[in-house]
Each structure stands twice: as structure tokens, then as C-alpha cells.
Amino acid sequence: MVESVFSKIIRGEIPCYKVYEDEKVLAFLDINPLSRGHTLVIPKIEVAYLHQLPDDYAAAIGRVLPRIARAIMEATGAEAYNILQNNGSLAHQAVFHVHFHIIPKFKDSGLIIGWNPHRLLEEEAEDLLEKIKERL
User: What's the domain range around 25?
Assistant: First the structure.
């Protein structure tokens, strides 16, 4: 079981600026936002990584994420946004409780991404594809 600041927010031990709540999902304004309207969407189950999230909680987040994003876009007037979800320290996860960031993008604020792609080689693709499909 993961115990994090988000667990305390779910239990009401730490206050938050609640945007949305249902039986499985809680969304609240990030207290250290990258931009106006930056919101966190979390499952009400204590798991650190997305791959640990039960299907019913994943489905619950999937149902409300677009609705929350629409509301944020309309409320802030933003024309673009990022959805960010990190898993593990190497991926910049700071709070080890699954969470999705909805980050409105404005000209002078929002998420800044560095992207360093490489070419996928055919033999690498075929090997990786086979290994992934075996595990689905």
C-alpha cells in the first residue's frame, strides 16, 4: 500500500481545492501549478504506478478526464493543454500515487517538453512487438 500526501487528501486530512469527486476519482487544483487551471486527477486507491491500477479505476479516470479537461479549458480560456502521467523516479514521478496532470498551455506558461527521439529499427520493432503481444 502506498501512503502519500494524496492519500491524506483523499481521507480529508489535508484540504484541497476540489474540482471533481466521485466514488473512484478525485480531481483538485495543483498547489504548485505550471499554469492557471493545472489540475491533478487521482484514483481513490493507493497505488504508485499506472500499471498497478485496477481496470475499474482506470475506466473511471478515463470517463471523467475528458470532462474535467473541457471544464478547465472553458474556465481558463486556454486553447491547448497537456495530459501528463509519470511512473517512477526516472520518469520524474515525485508523488508515488497514480496521478494525471491536466496542464493548460498558454503562451507564457504550461508544460515545457524536451523531446529526443531516435529511429526505430525494423529488427528492434519486430522483436519488441512480439514480446509485448505475448504479454497482453
Answer: 5-135
